[in-house]
Design brief:
Layout: H1 7-21, E1 39-48, E2 57-61, E3 66-74, E4 77-82, E5 85-90, E6 98-100, E7 106-118, E8 128-140, E9 142-144, E10 147-149, E11 156-168
Antiparallel strand pairs: 1-2, 1-11, 2-3, 3-4, 4-5, 5-7, 6-7, 7-8, 8-11, 9-10
Length: 169
C-alpha cells in the first residue's frame, strides 16, 4: 500500500535516503569477518525525476561500483537495496536554504546533512559508517486556487543527492 506524503515531507525523506546510499561502498563479495574487513571511502549519487519521489535510483562508486534503489523509508531511516543485500541509513533532517517563488511556483532546496549506516543483510551484513550528504531539489509545485501548494505532488521535479564518507564492512 502506498502512503501519501506532502512534498515537503518527501523532500526531507529523500535527503536521508540519499545519504543512505553512500554506504553502498561495500565491495561486491566482501565478508563481514574481521580478518577480511573492507574499509574505504565510497561515493554515491541518488537521483529521481518522479513527482512521487519513487523510485529513487543510486549509483555507488569508489571501492566498488554498483547500482540500486531505495526500497523503503520509515521516518528518517531508509533501506537501500542492491544486488546481494540491503542496509539501512539513518539521517537527521538536512539544513540549508529552501525557497518557493509564489509567482512562478519554482521550489528550490539545497541542503546538507549527515548519515549513519547500519543493519546490513547479505553482502552488507556488519556494515557500518557515516558521512556527509548534499541534496538539491528543483521543482515546480502544483497550483490550487491560483496559488502554489505543497500539499499536492509537484508538476515537475529533479532531485539529486550526493554522498561521501568512510565505510567498514
Amino acid at each position: 500500500m502506498k502512503r501519501k506524503v506532502s512534498f515537503a515531507t518527501a523532500a526531507m525523506a529523500a535527503t536521508g535516503s540519499m545519504a543512505a546510499a553512500l554506504w553502498l561502498a561495500v565491495p561486491a563479495g566482501a565478508s563481514s569477518a574481521a580478518s577480511r574487513a573492507v574499509t574505504g571511502t565510497e561515493h554515491f549519487q541518488f537521483m529521481t525525476t518522479s513527482v512521487t519521489f519513487s523510485p529513487v535510483s543510486v549509483i555507488a562508486f569508489g571501492a566498488f561500483t554498483t547500482a540500486g534503489r531505495i526500497s523503503n523509508t520509515v521516518g528518517n531511516v531508509d533501506t537501500l537495496a542492491f544486488p546481494g543485500g540491503t542496509f539501512k541509513v539513518a539521517h537527521p533532517n538536512g539544513i540549508g536554504p529552501t525557497t518557493l517563488n509564489p509567482k512562478t511556483c519554482l521550489f528550490t532546496s539545497h541542503q546538507q546533512g549527515t548519515y549513519k549506516v547500519f543493519g546490513g543483510t547479505g553482502k552488507y551484513a556488519g556494515i557500518s559508517g557515516h558521512g556527509v550528504a548534499h541534496l538539491s531539489i528543483l521543482a515546480i509545485t502544483a497550483r490550487s486556487g491560483g496559488k502554489c501548494t505543497m500539499t499536492k505532488p509537484p508538476v515537475a521535479l529533479q532531485l539529486i543527492v550526493t554522498q561521501s564518507g568512510p565505510v567498514r564492512l
